Amino acid sequence: MISMKITFLGTGAAVPSKNRNHIGIAFKFNGEVFLFDCGENIQRQMLFTEISPMKINHIFITHLHGDHILGIPGLLQSLGFFGREKELKIFGPEGTKDIIKNALEFGYNYINYPIKVYEIKEKNPAIVLKEDDYEIITYPTKHTVPSYAYIFREIKKPRLDVKKALKLGVKVGPDLKKLKEGEAVKTENGSIVYPKDVLLPPKKGFCLAYSGDTLPLEDFGQFLRDIKCDVLIHEATFDDQCRDTARENMHTTIGEAVNIARLAHVKVLILTHISARYDKEEFFKTYLENVEEYNNKEDFKIMVSEDLMTLDVKNDLL
């Protein structure tokens, strides 16, 4: 299994607190780092983790509220100081191009590497990035401004039925590799063996979803179920007692996030974007007790994210 780790660089909402930085999530996949949201101070948070900013090739912004984007100008400038040359791709809702343009014009800097910005305008789920071994899907959510969730899906290649290939006369060596890569081969007896003759369906790849800020959307949960999502990182800014406040600010409560995870049939739900009100010990105790109520009756694991928490997908989650 390819190495995959999730690091929470910031887990707070709206304003930073003593215990929680502005929001930012780094997902490390096969040596590359995907950054989801980039709140203020995110680059300094990386110094306390194994995350290298130079390994970030893609940044995905859920929406343009300050607590999700104010770390971008500093990060871009630091990458310039580090001597970055590789292109950086940034995805976000309409208006992201103006944000990056302003960031590049903010003061003097040494940003000489290429930056490409992709603005998302889709009103339905859409693939915004596709590579050989993964794809990123965006899903429109409901917040006070245009907002999107992001879903990472690992793409597995078809498996080769070696025994069947050998039985059909394929010799051990380069021909087996050709078949696995989708190329037909000719055996010594002159017969042609096609990939469809010897390839098995690929195994399911890992799937991770991040909601961004949003009202609870049952359709989102059902979509995640259909694509067989494994881990859902969902905002739960408030506990269930603050449902009216959550609704007024177009956020999600613990119970509502749990319901989305239940609909999605995920294995793990990780709650994040937690209000600064929970820096107070008595309020945070209430929050944790609320989480534990659901943990005792759901068949999936529910976790509360903490700043600098790193989870190994294979060992800690699956």
Automatic annotation (TrEMBL):
Cofactor mode of binding and number, as noted: Binds 2 Zn(2+) ions.
Q: Which Pfam families match?
A: Anti-Pycsar_Apyc1
- EC annotation? 3.1.26.11
Task: Spell out the catalytic residues.
Answer: D67 (proton acceptor)
Single GO MF descriptor: 3'-tRNA processing endoribonuclease activity
Provide the cofactor list for this protein.
Answer: Zn(2+)
Q: Which family does it belong to?
A: Belongs to the RNase Z family.
In terms of HAMAP family, this protein maps to: RNase_Z_BN
Its protein name is Ribonuclease Z
Q: Which organism is it from?
A: Methanocaldococcus vulcanius (strain ATCC 700851 / DSM 12094 / M7) (Methanococcus vulcanius)
Instruction: Kindly list the organism's lineage.
Output: Archaea, Methanobacteriati, Methanobacteriota, Methanomada group, Methanococci
